[in-house]
What does this fold into?
Amino acid sequence: MREIDKVFKALADPSRRQLLDRLHAKSGQTLNELCKGLDMTRQAVTQHLGLLEKANLIAVQWQGREKLHYFNPVPIHEIYERWIRKFERERLSALHNLKSKLEGKRP
Amino acid sequence: MNEDKFVYVIYIAATPEKVWKALLDGEMTRQYWGRENVSDWKPGSKWEHRRFDDARTVDLVGKVVEFVPPRRLVLTWADPADAADVAKHTRVAIDIETVGDMVRLTVTHDEFKPGSDMLRKIANGWPRVLSSLKSFLETGRPLKTWA
It folds into this structure.
């Protein structure tokens, strides 16, 4: 499977997006931390993390005996570079902020 | 216990030597990064991240911590305004490993101090630089964002 196919496949699952959201909010978490408060078995989380790692959406680093997971935004940035032109960026960002403000979500 | 730490990973179809050269060679960084990294690259020496404008503006400063070609480069990383204030310096480790016929380039940026402005600056910066480097090495063309 090509790199970009792995990224889209990994992002297609809501549980995996939830894991990415949690790592985006707080990078560098252990499996135990990530499992807390999730409606998923430990095995399921492990499997999802493996798929995310293969897609290069998370990076793993060891700190002593702890395996820490970090969100890696690089593949998503490559998608952005592929389809968003330089002159469109500011206006798209303004539209995004407008939507967030009106809908009451943080930008 | 975990202070802020960012890990960026990119796979590039190139040799470790090529990636290493692309990080240090000003003619190459100019094309995909728009800046040059200037130093004698001896551990303990200063390094500077300079623009190619007439004033050769310095955007970042720091010291060389480790220099192990073509595998590992560790630098301290600071705003020029904080050059003398070591407490505000952050740390960047760049690791280059061979994985099959690719290179895995890992940038680990940590030691951010509370209230540091550096966090905001790098959050956009590294993915852009790394995507541009990959494009430059694999296709000969950097990303247009640097034009």
Q: What stands out?
A: The longest helix of chain A spans residues 89-103.
